[in-house]
Amino acid sequence: MLSAAIANLFVVGASMATLPSPVPAPEPRASLSPIARIFGVFFSPKATFEDIVRKPDWVAPLIVLFLTGMLLNVALATHANWIEVIKEQIGKNKMAASQIENMDPAKRDAVYERAASQTKTIRYVRGVIGWPLALLFGALLYFGVYRLIGGGRVSFLLSFVILAFASLPMGLREILGSIVALLKDPSAIDPENYLASNPAALLPPDTPAWQIVPLAFLDVFAIWVLVLVAVGFTAADPKKLPFGKSLGLAIGLHVALMFFFTAIAWVFS
Hints:
- By secondary structure, this protein is mostly helical.
- The chain has one domain.
- Helix content is 74%, strand content 0%.
- The protein has twelve helices and no strands.
- The longest helix is centred in the middle third of the chain and has 45 residues, at 105-149.
- It is elongated, with a radius of gyration of 28 Å.
- The N and C termini lie far apart (107 Å).
- Mean pLDDT is 88; it is low at 1-7 and 9-14.
């Protein structure tokens, strides 16, 4: 009996020795730092947005865009010749132009001065609240398009984060525009098209606004943003939003906005 028990112990020990060792659980992938995400959007967007959707955070891109927006608007407010800008803008509106022409020169100059001062103030305000409002409104539109039309499983917060990071190329555009504004002749600065990154920059100054708007939507940086938006939403829901579908939704919204703002410009021209 004793020998049989000892034999059983050896058998049990041998069987336990042959059991496979438990496989350790994979460690959770370390999230990219905010700075790494910012640079990753430019150099490795697919992997970066996959990391962003795992742990959404909007603080870093919003800070960057706030700073670039302030830089641009301060540069334009302090260096553009706003009297000439106002004259060009009024000249594109037939009703406003006819009213100005009927004024005596002193009163006309006062109108130009007052409008220039108000426009400069608006530029400073735009530098503070411009990007937060633009991202909130844009995220709402993208959330509606990708959730209701695309059927994607995305939230408003995730839509906001994706758009914030995808808009970083526009921050680069603002940095380049600030440099141009500081170096360019003040009378040659166009505050609404401060960088020649779209076909509208090739049009003469007296071109009606409704003809400028659609060409301004063909901006190189804006197209870059659309591609990044598509990459971001694909990373959020690859099954429901493959890249081709995601890009089509982004372009469709962009075209719809182009027609909307072109129509508004035509009505008020």
